[in-house]
Design a protein that fits this description.
Elements: H1 3-15, H2 23-26, H3 30-49, H4 53-76, H5 82-96, H6 117-133, H7 150-162, H8 172-191, H9 194-214, H10 219-243, H11 253-265
Helix pairs in contact: 1-4, 3-4, 7-9, 8-9, 10-11
InterPro entries: MazG-like_dom, NTP-PPase_MazG-like_C, NTP-PPase_MazG-like_N, NTP_PyrPHydrolase_MazG
Organism: Marinomonas aquiplantarum
GO molecular function, one term: ATP diphosphatase activity
Length: about 270
């Protein structure tokens, strides 16, 4: 174990010390820090999208700290420790890369592999299925975490079902399904029943997520990029209004639209 990791583990031990530790850190549980883990993962992605490598370094440190935090709590509960986490992932990667480590040992390389990327992906999936076979029987979709962000979860559910042939082979029916769901949403809106509207809205989003999957586009990342673009253009509208000593509330929708088009024409 590197000295840097040992220092981080010792820091975590100090923070959780019953007598001298931090009051906040001591009271945390797996459940209470889980939302922070998700937040840190998104901040890593944000730094990557911005190509801010100083920030990426910091955010990766924050994410690593989450792993150390969980491992410390588990060690206190006599469940596992950080070494178990590391040894587990090393063993898994050795097992899932037999074309690189045919002996299943880290210090024993095989011959250079001629497998294509698609061959490697198929091999990976086959090994995962073998691993699942040794575990208690589950439904096909049971290992998709229900706490996963909704769009990501939708993609995972669709991918799982697709492995068993429950999928369209080309994109045309996907567009047809989106149009069908939009029609049903419009009907629900006309009826004015809020619960039905929410259900049909969910169906539309699920269908759109399915389209993204067929296009090999991450809906989360695509939407995040659009969010960033929206922030950028709206900030430009605010800047233009400040230069004119005006406020957003002074403008009609038509005026705001004109400023938006200006921001768009500026390449923002």
């Amino acid at each position: 174990m590197s000295e840097a990791i040992q220092r981080l583990q010792y820091l975590m031990t100090c923070l959780r010390d019953k007598d001298f530790g931090c009051a906040w850190d001591k009271k945390q549980t797996y459940q209470t820090i889980a939302p922070y883990t998700l937040e840190e993962a998104y901040e890593v992605i944000d730094a990557i999208e911005r190509a801010d490598f100083d920030d990426l370094k910091d955010e990766l440190g924050d994410l690593l700290f989450q792993v150390i935090f969980y491992s410390q709590i588990a060690r206190e509960d006599d469940k596992f420790d950080f070494d178990d986490v590391v040894n587990g992932i090393v063993a898994k990667m050795l097992r899932r890369h037999p074309h690189i480590f045919p002996q299943g040992e880290l210090d024993r390389f095989g011959e250079p592999s001629n497998l294509s990327e698609s061959d490697i992906s198929a091999q990976w999936q086959a090994i995962k299925e073998q691993e699942k076979a040794s575990k208690p029987k589950q439904g096909v979709l049971d290992d998709v975490p229900s706490a996963m962000p909704s769009m990501m979860q939708a993609v995972k559910l669709q991918q799982k079902a697709a492995k068993f042939g429950f999928d369209w082979q080309d994109i045309s029916p996907v567009f047809a399904k989106i149009r069908e769901e939009l029609d049903e949403l419009e009907e629900a809106i006309q009826l004015g029943e809020q619960g039905h509207i929410a259900e049909e809205m969910g169906d539309v989003l699920f269908a759109m997520t399915n389209l993204a999957r067929h296009l090999k586009v991450s809906p989360d990342i695509a939407l995040n990029k659009t969010n960033t673009k929206f922030r950028r253009r709206f900030a430009r509208i605010e800047t233009l209004l400040v230069a004119q000593n005006r406020k957003l509330t002074d403008c009609s929708l038509a005026e705001l639209d004109r400023y938006w088009e200006q921001a768009k024409s500026e390449g923002l």
